[in-house]
Amino acid sequence: MLALSDAGELGFDGERLARIDEFIERQYIATGRLNNAQVLVARGGQPVHYAHFGSLRDDGTGMREDALFRIASMTKPVTSIAFMQLVERCAVAVDDPVARVIPEFAELGVYTGGGGALPFAPARRGKPMRFVDLLTHMSGLTYGFQNRSSIDAAYRDAQLDLSRGSLTSDEYIAKLAQIPLEFEPGSSWNYSVSTDVIGIAVERLSGMSLGVYLAEHVFGPLEMVDTGFDVPEDKAERLADAYGYRPGKTPRLVDRAVESRLLQPAKFHSGGGGLVGTIADYHRFCTMLLNKGKLDGAWIVAPKTLDLMTANQLPDGADLTETSRSLFSEANNAGTGFGLGFAMVIDPAKTLMPASKGEFYWGGAYSTAFFVDPVERITMVFMTQLYPSSTYPIRRQLKTLIYSALTDSHA
Question: How far are the Cα atoms of 259, 316, 348 from residue 353, in angstroms, in the given order?
Fold first, then answer.
């Protein structure tokens, strides 16, 4: 059971925090928009509010605190932290060419035409891709699900978005290296498989699978006992069903837990979206981030490393409205920058919602989300299982409800 601290002692109004539960139940669970949800709010690492809603399974099995959720792109910050651990050991540098570790990328070029029913035109050679370009999603890579271009179509044909069971890491890179980049690295921002490539770099640099590396260097030290790329047999009963949005209808079951491929070992450990875990585990990860890389005596990364990761790396201090080509929903564009694995608030007024400058966050395709506010020392983790994450504005609504309950602001 999650032990809750007194909300009043930590600067929250308990009655206003209770609005979160009423809102989620009335607007999302009772209406059938969401089948399940969990939310955990903490200050200074101490939980002040927790609630769960709905059912774990389509058969009516009740929700449970230790439910396992597909956290999808909330895997990305974890993988980015793992890479930065190797940077701290000088096994690699943020500005190293990617081809130093992944030589298959040495001949990558930029798209000049073709695709679809036609072969790609010869690619134009541009600047070499660096690891900073991957960490910031300024690499020129993309996601097939964006459905915008011939490059996206090639990703779909190669099944690069969802490759958990079909490709090894080396096969994944070999396919990816055959497709031109959308743009010259460093020139624009596009949400992409970049963090999957970062995960493969972690594997090659460490000599371990990504899952083993994370277990030894992140999950073990943080006591994140339920997070990994596979769901073991003794935890299978805790996996939630996953649903897909249908306009005007109740969500459609898209991954029945008892039949999920997550119950089988993954062939490919997707650093961009493959992890499954609990709200309690991700709360520990967020608390480590809030504490500048440390939790309960375990140092995961150094404070200055985390400062670098949560600083805006977009050119000339721009926000995503000025640099993004993407159709994505894990961040709001206005007033939002991007660092080495996280989005962050660079201008709270432009976000048009309560926020602190320097707050950093991300989310996942099944509508999960987290944020870390180092000014107010607030963290939030939200779990549910509805694809895609752009369906409802629940992330904005949760932030509004949380900050409206804050009575003792440090800003």
Answer: 40, 24, 7
97 in any annotated domain: yes
Query: What is the span of the domain harbouring residue 103?
Result: 80-206
Is the entire prediction scored with pTM above 0.70?
A: yes
Residue 140 counted as domain residue:
yes
Q: How many CB atoms lie within 10 A of CB 321?
A: 12
The total number of residues shown for the chain amounts to 411
| pLDDT tens digits along 303-313 | 999 999 999 99
Burial 132-155 (b: 16+ CB within 10 A, else e): bbbbbbbbbbbbbbbebbbbbebb
Spell out the residues 6+ positions from residue 223 whose beta carbon is closer than 8 angstroms to its own: 284, 296
The verdict on residue 257 lying in a domain is no
From CA 206, how far away is CA 229, in angstroms rounded?
Answer: 18
Contact 407, 9 (CB under 8 A): no
Pairing of strands 36-43, 378-383: antiparallel
Q: What are phi and psi of 157, to 5 degrees?
A: -60, -40
Pair 350, 386: CB distance under 8 Å: no
pLDDT for the residue numbered 330: 63
Taking the C-alpha atoms of residue 336 and residue 345, their distance in angstroms, rounded to an integer, is 5
For position 256, what pLDDT does the model report?
97
The count of domains in the chain is 1
CA distances from 58 to 62, 71, 230, 250 (A): 10, 19, 21, 12
What lies within 8 Å, CB to CB, of 346 at 6+ separation is 312, 317, 319, 335, 336, 337, 357
Does any domain span residue 355?
Answer: no
Task: Extract the runs of DSSP E, i.e. beta strands, from 76-176.
Answer: none
Q: Which of 71, 367, 117, 404 is nearest to 228 (CA)?
A: 71
Cβ atoms of residues 261 and 203 within 8 Å: no
Is the distance from CB of 123 to CB of 114 less than 8 angstroms? no
CATH number for the domain spanning 121: value is 3.40.710.10
Q: Hey, CA dihedral for 385, 362, 265, 220, is it positive or negative?
A: negative
> Where are the extended beta strands (E) located within 323-410?
336-338, 343-345, 360-363, 369-373, 378-383, 386-387
The residues with which 118 forms a beta bridge, in sequence order, are 115
